[in-house]
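User: My instructor asked us to take a sequence, write out its structure as C-alpha cells, and then describe one feature of it. I'm not sure where to start. Here is the sequence I was given:
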Amino acid sequence: MGRPRLYCGQACRQRAYEQRAATAKAGLSADVVLVTRAELDGLQDRLYQLRCAIEDVQTLLTEKPTKAELERSLADLVRSTGRLDRLWLSGKTAG
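Assistant: Let's start with the prediction itself. The C-alpha cells for your sequence are:
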C-alpha cells in the first residue's frame, strides 16, 4: 500500500541526500551523473571488449564458419557484455 519505495534502506536514502546536496553545492544540475576516473576507465575497457567481440562476429559471418566457430564467437560476445545491463539508469535514485 502507499507509494513504492525509492530506497532499499536508510543508508541508501542518506547517500542519495548527500549526493543531491553535493551536486547542488557544486552548482550542477540534477541530471548530471558523476563517476570516478576508475569507473569511467573500466566502462570504456568493457565497451572496447564488446566492440571487438562484435567485430569478430561480423568478420566470422563474412566467412563460412563452422557451427563450433560460430558458437564460440557468439559465446565470447555474450561473455564480453559482462554485467553491462547493470548500467541502465532510471529517473529515480537507485537504492
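For the description part of your assignment, you could build on this observation: Helices lie at 10-25, 37-62, 67-81. Try explaining in your own words what that tells you about the chain.
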